[in-house]
Write a sequence for this structure.
DNA sequence: GCAGCATATGCCGGAACGGACATACCGGAA
DNA sequence: TTCCGGTATGTCCGTTCCGGCATATGCTGC
């Protein structure tokens, strides 16, 4: 998994601006992580909008606070599956998801 | 995993019309499998459009023919992650994916 | 200061997912 | 028929992902 590198770099204090296209990521890989980032951002937005704590959302999803934190951080170890399930649990519907997935990052 | 039930029923010759809302699926779960189905259909469409065999697509994705078959069958053991990656490998972009995810099934 | 809550990070065992392979099924061409 | 390219189905085993927990960091009000 290439995305590990990215995480490591960020951990080292770099925090790549916007996204990590300068790494050895194929265009597809880059687009994939951008989608994950978009989903992650939307998840946090939706949660805050509902005035939920990470622990509360976790309960609704059937997960844990730490997982939610990682989701919102777009941690490499969280899958799109989990992000999507969480978004649905947070009240998003298919059309919402479609918009999130389809919209270019900022 | 609830979706297992569905698979079993289909295997038993039922092949639920459209999707399996009559099972003990929460609305969220139902929406989730519908999204997977939509992605699966689009993957097959895209592949055929390119006149690729499942084995060829597998090569581009870095997977195997059997996995591709399962993807297109929306087998419970394939993740959205893999579907999305495969779609990207098949030439879809974010906007395409957004449409697929957002569009109500048929 | 520190107490209390929310969020972040690290780790571990167990479950789910993945590629690979073998094999079965299903057309169509010879 | 038999053969053959394509697709489906089943299993195996290594890897990835998940939930849970412990702990760290951050913030606000006291």
């Amino acid at each position: 998994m290439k995305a590990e590198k990215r995480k490591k770099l960020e951990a080292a204090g770099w925090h790549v601006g916007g996204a990590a296209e300068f790494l050895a990521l194929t265009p597809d890989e880059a687009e994939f992580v951008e989608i994950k980032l978009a989903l992650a951002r939307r998840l946090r937005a939706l949660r805050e909008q509902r005035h939920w704590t990470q622990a509360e959302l976790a309960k609704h999803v059937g997960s844990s606070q730490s997982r939610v934190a990682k989701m919102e951080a777009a941690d490499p170890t969280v899958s799109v599956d989990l992000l999507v399930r969480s978004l649905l649990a947070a009240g998003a519907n298919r059309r919402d998801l479609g918009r999130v997935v389809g919209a270019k990052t900022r």
In short: The domain at 25-102 of chain B is CATH 1.10.260.40 (434 Repressor (Amino-terminal Domain)). Confidence is low (pLDDT under 50) at residues 1-5, 7-21 of chain B. Chain B is about 65% helix and 0% strand.
